[in-house]
């Protein structure tokens, strides 16, 4: 086995990227205090390991994340990096969520700021972070398609949308991938969303692969996770006990439980690209080393028996955030 990153194409129309991707939210306070210098080292460690796909959002740290990535990319060839950017999630000065804005004129405005902060002349993938219920998806995708025609964007993505929305969007312009939570503990997307994506030639970039640390982490939520139903009371006790038996299989594979979880998502299809957050270079090393795991059919069956679909208790987000997810309607 080797730890060389595999490559995958994001759908039939998207760019070729490395898998896993680096999720950058945690570098801008998404999971607690951060250090910019270590954040820059973390991004560079991923790129030095051969990684190409950086996932960010213009609202990560209210623009901080894009500035940090710009620093990390200094001296790198633009064509060596695939920048995937989410937009539309509104934030107040204190970071309080303020809904979503995916109006066409807002698309153009958000894009101009992202290009400036990142210091690039185009984004490789651009996507609304959530469906704006006040704006038809056709209008939002049409606005991004205009930016594709002008060369400011290369490919269009979606995030946390349902099967019907994916179909409507794909009827307007090619969609390269849908970013959505997918893990051993979150598998409802297997019912409709994944089949529709495969029918239409749309890739999946899977985030939440470690279920916010329930799989392979300490299981102890930080302040921001304590409000999540899966981390509360009896739910937390049940979920921690559910994934505990994975340690034995991981040990047999000379791997961590986190690496097992990454390999499990990657094993669900060539169209699956796990997006893994890291805040330190050593976490990048652990993440990229997961690619050496090759799970057999017996391994997958064993995992299924240990962690059956639907066995986790509690919703993946608090009720107000769940209400924003078109994928959960």
TrEMBL record:
Keyword Oxidoreductase attributed: yes
Domain NADP-dependent oxidoreductase: from-to ranges: 22-306
Protein's name according to its UniProt entry: Aldo/keto reductase
Superkingdom in the source lineage: Bacteria
GO cellular component: cytoplasm
Keyword hit for Oxidoreductase: yes
Biological source species: Streptomyces diacarni
InterPro entries from the UniProt entry: Aldo-Keto_reductase, NAD(P)_OxRdtase_dom_sf, NADP_OxRdtase_dom
Gene Ontology molecular function: any one: oxidoreductase activity
Pfam families given in the database record: Aldo_ket_red
Alphabetical UniProt keywords: Oxidoreductase
């Amino acid at each position: 086995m080797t730890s060389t990153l595999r490559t995958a194409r994001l759908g039939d129309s998207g760019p070729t990227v490395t898998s896993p991707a680096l999720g950058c939210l945690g570098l801008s306070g998404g999971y607690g205090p951060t250090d910019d210098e270590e954040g820059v080292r973390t991004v560079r460690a991923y790129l030095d390991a051969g990684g190409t796909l950086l996932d960010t959002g213009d609202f990560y740290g209210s623009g901080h994340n894009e500035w940090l990535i710009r620093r990390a990319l200094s001296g790198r060839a633009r064509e060596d990096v695939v920048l995937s950017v989410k937009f539309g999630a509104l934030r107040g000065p204190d970071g309080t969520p303020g809904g979503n804005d995916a109006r066409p004129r807002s698309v153009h405005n958000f894009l101009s700021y992202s290009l400036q902060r990142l210091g690039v002349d185009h984004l490789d993938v651009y996507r609304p972070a959530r469906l704006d219920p006040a704006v038809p998806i056709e209008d939002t995708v049409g606005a991004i398609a205009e930016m594709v025609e002008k060369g400011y964007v290369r490919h269009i993505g979606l995030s946390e949308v349902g099967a019907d929305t994916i179909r409507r969007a794909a009827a307007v312009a090619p969609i390269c991938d849908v970013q959505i939570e997918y893990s051993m503990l979150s598998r409802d997307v297997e019912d409709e969303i994944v089949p529709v994506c495969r029918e239409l030639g749309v890739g999946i970039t899977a985030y939440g692969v470690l279920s916010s640390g329930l799989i392979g982490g300490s299981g102890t939520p930080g302040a921001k996770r304590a409000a999540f139903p899966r981390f509360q009371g009896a739910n937390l006790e049940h979920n921690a006990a559910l994934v505990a038996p994975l340690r034995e299989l991981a040990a047999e594979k000379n791997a961590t439980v986190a690496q097992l979880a990454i390999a499990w998502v990657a094993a669900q299809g060539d169209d699956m690209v796990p997006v893994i957050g890291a805040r330190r270079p050593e976490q990048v090393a652990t993440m990229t080393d997961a690619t050496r795991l090759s799970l057999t059919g017996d391994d997958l069956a064993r995992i299924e028996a240990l962690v059956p679909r639907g066995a986790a208790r509690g919703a993946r987000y608090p009720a107000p955030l769940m209400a924003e997810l078109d994928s959960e309607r």
